Give the backbone structure.
Amino acid sequence: MIFISIMQKYEHFFYSHGKLLLTGEYFILYGAYGLALPTVKGQSFTIYYDKNYSGSSGLHWKSFDNIDKPWFEVFFKLPSLDICYDTEKKIAFRLRNLLLESRKIKKNFLKNSFGIFYVKTKLEFPINWGLGSSSTLINNIAKWASIDPYMLLEKNFPGSGYDIACVSNSKPIIFKLKNKKPHVIPINFNPPFKKKLFFLHLNKKKNTCEGIRFFRSKKNISSKSIDSISSITKKIIVCKTLKEFEILLLKHERIISGILNLPTVKEHYFPDYLGIVKSLGTWGGDFVLISFRKGMKKYFSKKGFHTILSFDEMIL
């Protein structure tokens, strides 16, 4: 199936930034404060509508990666949203579910349209980077349907909602669940030592839902540990030296390591590295934060890790 190269009518354009969680992973589910950082790269969402299309009413969706290569395509019949054609069943059904859930919230969404919608999504980062290909998609669909993105997230993923809050903002945020409702505070986070902070890609994709289920199965989560994570988050925001920053993040890693009964990512992969290595979000995958030490790039390259981005390259 060919995606038309010249669109008849521009309809909508939406955009969401990617996300990284610096502090609070897992614990924000229990009310701890977390610090989330929107990334420079995100996902765009462009919709064209041709009401004069002579065929059956439908929605033609095509997704492109960061090098403009199409990686997924599907055609839905409207208004039923039945799948007429797809390049990957699992993704097609997941997307259909998102659209149907959007319709449950907004009753007339994609229900009374005649003609054809052309949707083009474009990731600015590689799919395996874990910066929020799902959360940016959910946020963009919610914008299109004019619905609350948290409601759409809640029906599809078991997370806290920090990722939706982060991709919706153009500044770092403090996130907290209070009475199961997200509370978001945009902040300025511009540490004076940021030129010594980098992001290393582990190239080991982890399933967030599985990570959350594993953490929730633990019985040793105390109010003291929740308060400790919140305290670290508050101190991270205002700390002025790299040494203090590293000490706080090391304490953070040890708390979660104790709960999970797992070694930290540094203990597992880089025990002899002199700087900090901090997990970001689900443990064991995607990106980690590292602090600069002399010979840093050579050290990680020798271990087979070659993707390192500076703070300014990664964080908005």
Residues 1-7 have pLDDT under 50 and may be disordered. The chain is about 30% helix and 30% strand. The radius of gyration is 21 Å. The longest helix spans residues 242-260.
